[in-house]
Amino acid sequence: MKSKVLIPVDSARNSLTAEEYAIKLSWRMPLAVTLLNVINTKRLEQHGISPDDQERIKASMRKRAENVLQAAAEPFQKAGVEYEIQIEEGQPAVVICRVAEGEGYDMVILPQSGFSELEEILGGSVVHNVLWKCKTPILLVKHSQQQLDAQRKKLAESELLPR
Fold it and tell me: Following CA atoms 14, 20, 21, 26 in sequence, which dihedral angle do they give, to the nearest 10 degrees?
């Protein structure tokens, strides 16, 4: 019997660590993986954006989510790991917990947050919220120092963090 595993996949591809670990784990135990991307609709609310514009933005976000999930699915396909992709809308942490609990997942595999401790305290992270609120068992996969450095560099290049 395969273990039913949920892996949230973000568009920043912070989830690569969790995806790689899941493939390695599948060599030891059979897995049925769901790659989940949550379109964060909270960012669109209460900003005076018209409903038509919101729908256009959501359609664009959905297209990006499909592309991200297809890229995430390729290694699973190559490794022969059973997988499916799923797109949901809402607040990411809330949706991840709802899907994990409501659809009977055995485990959620999450990567370590890419935020520093201070950034997590100030802004909170999806990873932190899922760890504390989800009733489904969580496997937290740590990034290597190389992965953390690459992620920080990518964020700095996109001018989300000071250089």
Answer: 140
